[in-house]
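Duplicate of #3305? Posting structure anyway:
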């Protein structure tokens, strides 16, 4: 796992270093609201947040409007389930790295619409589980069996003045983080690009 994360960081750093001098590179910050749960049914949604940095790399060699969307985000997910008269609340926090390919249609100098999709990689950092007034670590106490998360994401939105982005997206986790449970996450985001 550590090798995978180190390799991804090196590839991103090398790639960003070579494209930073190009005019097709933009970066910024992204933050927003998560509405997450664990599949299958039986778990209720939990509200969390996400915040981090993102980059967009235009790929005009493929086609005008095509771009690569990369990021590193702190994302609070979770779920809750009623067990008898008590409620179990899970609040895991992940470091997520989305790697999406997208297309942006620039209607004019002030307005564009975009959509992107691709995989994301996540590693569980910390989090709490609360039940019956007690609190314990989600990962260290093995309530969630795996810290590693991987899945597919889809996002669409609008961009104003080539700087402000408002988007909505959804992530489908493909890795079981607990017994037969996978992460699902709806995101509403505000991004500011430089």
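Output from current build:
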């Amino acid at each position: 796992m550590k090798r995978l994360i180190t390799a991804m960081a090196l590839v991103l750093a090398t790639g960003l270093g070579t494209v930073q001098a190009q005019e097709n590179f933009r970066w910024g910050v992204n933050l927003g609201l998560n509405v997450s749960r664990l599949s299958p049914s039986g778990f209720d949604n939990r509200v969390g947040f996400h915040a981090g940095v993102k980059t967009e790399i235009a790929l005009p060699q493929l086609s005008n409007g095509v771009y690569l969307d990369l990021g590193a985000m702190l994302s609070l997910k979770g779920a809750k389930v009623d067990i008898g008269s008590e409620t179990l609340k899970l609040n895991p926090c992940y470091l997520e790295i989305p790697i999406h390919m997208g297309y942006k249609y620039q209607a004019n100098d002030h307005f564009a619409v975009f959509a992107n999709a691709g995989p994301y990689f996540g590693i569980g950092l910390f989090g709490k589980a609360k039940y019956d007034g007690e609190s314990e670590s989600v990962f260290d106490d093995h309530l969630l069996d795996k810290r590693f998360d991987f899945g597919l994401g889809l996002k669409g939105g609008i961009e104003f003045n080539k700087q402000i982005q408002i988007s909505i997206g959804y992530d489908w986790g493909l890795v079981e983080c607990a017994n037969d449970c996978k992460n699902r996450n709806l995101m509403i985001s505000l991004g500011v690009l430089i």
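Confirmed duplicate; merging threads. Helices lie at 2-19. Residues 144 and 178 are 5 Å apart (CA to CA).
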